[in-house]
Each structure stands twice: as C-alpha cells, then as structure tokens.
Amino acid sequence: MIYQIDNKTYKDNKVDCHLHTSLTDGCQPIEEVVEQAKKNRLKKVIITDHNSFHDPERIKKLNKKDIIVEQGVEIWTSFRDENFHLLGYGLDVYDKKLKNALQPAIEEKNRIAKEVLRKYEVLGIKMPSFEEIRVGSYRGINHYEKAYVGTKDIAMARHIVHGIDFEEAVCECGDKKYTGVDTPIIKVRSDFRHMGTLDAIKLVQGAGGKAVIAHPGFIFYNSENSEEENWGSLAEMFDVCNDNGLDGVEVVSLWHKKEFSYDFFEELKAKTSNKKIERHKKLIYDILTGLQLLTRGSDHHGICKEDFQMDKLLDY
Predict the structure, then answer these.
(1) CA nearest to 103, candidates 59, 173, 53, 143
(2) What pLDDT, in 10s, does the model give residues 12-36?
(3) What's the whole-model pTM score?
(4) What is residue 293's DSSP assignment?
(5) CB-based contacts of 154, cutoff 8 Å, min separation 6
(6) Mean of the per-residue pLDDT values for the chain?
(7) CB-based contacts of 50: which residues, under 8 Å, 6+ apart?
(8) Residue 197, exposed/middle/buried by CB under 10 A (0-12, 13-18, 19+)?
C-alpha cells in the first residue's frame, strides 16, 4: 500500500515519494539514500528510479521501525511530442509486460553511452570502459549496479579521470553546447521515441499500480514555447490523461516555484492577466481537486544534482 492514498498526502513533510539512486541517474546507492532519509527524520520514502527496479528483497531489508521504504518507478513518456514523466506506485515489479515495455528506453541509453565512449576513443582520449563506469570500479567502488549508463555518468568519469570540469564534461558528451570552451562536442544521433503517456498509464495500472504525473512544472524548464503555450500543453495533457484514468499528480516538487512553496496548487491559484492562461490553470485545478492521489517528492539525486536534495523540501 502507498502511504495515505488521499488528497492530504502531499501536505505531509515526513514523506518523500520521489527519490533516485545510483541504479539510474542518482549518485548514491539505495542504502545511503535511506540512511540520509532517516537522518532527515523522514518516516516514509518511495524510490522511483527511471524505468528500473531494485531487487524487492533488497527493499525489504531496508524497512525498519523508524522508516518505511517502498519502490515505484519513474517512466520517461511523450505526449504530443512533449516529454513528461509518469510515476508508478504500488505496482508489481515482477510484471513481465511492464518490465519488457520499460527495457527499450534503457537499451537506448546504453547504446548512446557506448557510442559516446567509442567517439572518445577515436579522439584519442582514454576513458574507462562501459562496464567500469556501469559498476563504478574505475573509481574504486563496485556497488552501483546501474541499470544504464547515462552521458552524465560518462561526464563524471571524464571529470574524475582527467580532471575536466564536470559541467564542461557534460557538454563535451553532447548534453548541451558549452560555449567559450575549446573542447570536442560529441554528438550521438537518436531517433528514439519514448512510450506515450497514455500507454504508460495503462501499463502501470495493468501491473496493479497507481499512475501519477510527475512534477508538472518541469515543462517550464525544458520548453522553448511561450508560457501560454506551455500552460495550454499542460491543460491538454491533464485533460486527456484524466479522461484515461489518471490516478494522481505530484503536487509538491522542487521543480515547482519556491515562491509558491514548491506547491503546484498555489501556482495554479496565482492570478495572471492572461485570460487564456487563467482558463488553462482553472481546468488543471479542477482536475487536481478530483484526483484520489496527490503526492510530494524532492526528486532527490544526491550531490550530482545539488538543487534536488531531499532536505530542501522538509520545511514545505
């Protein structure tokens, strides 16, 4: 069972329903994440790594009297060519249809990583192997058990092995253009399309879980569209997903504005002079108030993503 399946869940600051580990793009093994959660006096955490699951037996061992540990999943999805993440809670992690559907995105991540490393080799830059990065052995550790190697994992290896600034290395790997620095920019083409958001909702529910839209405010950080267009995209996505059985939304998130206490409800209630935006916000607000599951989550990644730490959400 998920902790408090009702519309008050998102107000409980002793619960964090969205955390990542080194299995995917976090930088701490799950045991360290749980220990940090206990130090922060959290009483419930849900691990939501990307398209991947920890061994359920490992999760069981982490459950203690002072903390409940569960795992869900965060799925990369696409709606009308916009990227949205969908959280799945309370699902059967052994469900074969679910695991098979999540695997192609993992395989694409690993394909890109191997191609980036091959291009480094062509440039004459000696890098740890794919497997050494995957398990962390190049840095003297072997507890990572990563489901995939991302470009930021390669950037970290470049930083550690060659002393290159991490942000520079991230851009060097093709994540974004790093202007003003004379370094090779490695680009790997990918035409991969993530599964549709509606398909992901059905997939989660088919595995016995609850489907929850992650950090809706994320769209404002990753879109070149106008604010009005972004609110319109959000409203359409909420409307269609709600008609297709959406269970909930992550209301409190560090992706949302601090001026509204990271609470998406508060941002929806803030008035604007743009009538179209107001209509979009009202539609979303009305949908939110009718959902059975509203959650909160820090999107914790550890020190590799300093703006997303579990302790930053404790006072909200």
Answers:
(1) 53
(2) 889 999 999 999 999 889 999 999 9
(3) 0.92
(4) E
(5) 113, 116, 117, 120, 127, 133, 169, 173
(6) 90
(7) 20, 24, 25, 73, 74, 75, 76, 105, 147, 148
(8) buried
Class (C level, CATH) for 9-101+194-313: alpha beta
Identify whether the C-beta of residue 68 lies closer than 8 Å to the C-beta of residue 45: yes
Contacts of 170 (CB under 8 A, 6+ apart): 151, 152, 155, 176, 178
> What backbone torsions phi and psi does residue 61 show, to the nearest 5 degrees?
-65, -20
| pLDDT single digits (tens) 55-106 | 999 999 999 889 999 999 999 999 998 889 999 999 999 999 999 999 999 9
CA distance 245 to 70: 23
Give the CA angle between residues 84, 88, 94 to the nearest 5°: 130
Structure tokens at 3: 């902790």
What are the structural domain ranges in the chain? 9-101+194-313, 106-172
